[in-house]
Amino acid sequence: MSVADWISAVFLLSGSLLALAAGIGMLRFPDLWTRMHAGTKPQVLGLLLVLAGVAVQLAPDAGAVVALLFVGLFQLVTAPVASHLLARAGHRSGVVPRDHLVQDDLRVFELECAAGEHPRPSGSPASAPADEPAARPAES
Amino acid sequence: MDVVTDVALGVLLVSALLVVVRLVRGPTTLDRAAAADVFVAILLCGVAVLVARRGSTVFVPVLLALSLLGFASSVAVVRFLSHGDPSNERKAP
């Protein structure tokens, strides 16, 4: 095995072990947020490590390396968005036990919105977000 | 190098099976959505290891498509669920 093979092997194996850690965490952790915490490892760092290992293997082929770079970039951009939506849906639907939280800024923000502390700017449409039934105006 | 990719594929297979167990068990639909998200990520890792094993770039476009498809499906499922699914009202054990 050449030096590039050794580097690639280290990257591939560490990425796979992060995926294994995510699998064990998904199975063992008690609620949605802790499971997401475990599941984020292969989504970002694990995938980037594996892609780095593959890129070392395919290094002479510049086109393939650029394609792998784009895969990593897409995952880096999209994984936080999906995780944010998932965590917020968990918060709103009450799946996760909120009383374990040390600080719950989203709840504080909802209470402030209900108290009318954050009026909508006049230019935006007046409809409440459709996925928040509690905030829907009474006349609808 | 074949031994390394074999070991990596085996580890990825075991972790995918663990995630599938959560996907089947998951007390709420949101847990299943999170598990499906992680499953797509592990699938991406698996296809990438396959590319390294074969040394051919045939599967690289598959990686791109899977990455975007995983994001779109996860966002769609979560947007759909946040409209109030009765099965989300149960508490996780």
UniProtKB/TrEMBL annotation, chain A:
Taxonomically, the superkingdom here is: Bacteria
One annotated GO molecular function is: sodium:proton antiporter activity
Q: Does the keyword Transit peptide apply?
A: no
Which InterPro entries does UniProt cross-reference here? Answer: PhaG_MnhG_YufB
**Region entry Disordered: which residue ranges?**
116-140
Low complexity: bias regions: 121-140
Family, according to the entry, reads as follows: Belongs to the CPA3 antiporters (TC 2.A.63) subunit G family.
The membrane spanning regions, by residue number, are 6-30, 65-87
Q: Which PANTHER family does this entry report, sorted A to Z? A: ANTIPORTER SUBUNIT MNHG2-RELATED
> What UniProt keywords apply to this chain's record, in alphabetical order?
Membrane, Transmembrane, Transmembrane helix
Q: Which organism is it from?
A: Quadrisphaera granulorum
Q: Which Pfam families match?
A: PhaG_MnhG_YufB
| Name of the protein described by the UniProt record | Multisubunit sodium/proton antiporter MrpG subunit
From TrEMBL, chain B:
Give the membrane topology: Multi-pass membrane protein
Task: Give TM segment ranges.
Answer: 6-24, 33-52, 58-81
**Which controlled-vocabulary keywords does the entry list?**
Cell membrane, Membrane, Transmembrane, Transmembrane helix, Transport
Q: Name one GO cellular component term.
A: plasma membrane
**Which InterPro entries did the record assign?**
MrpF/PhaF-like
> Which Pfam families does the annotation name?
MrpF_PhaF
Any one GO MF term held by the record is: sodium:proton antiporter activity
At the top level of its lineage, which domain of life is listed? Bacteria
Q: Give the UniProt subcellular location, in the record's own words.
A: Cell membrane
Family that this chain belongs to: Belongs to the CPA3 antiporters (TC 2.A.63) subunit F family.
> Can you name this protein?
Multisubunit sodium/proton antiporter MrpF subunit
The record lists the organism as Quadrisphaera granulorum
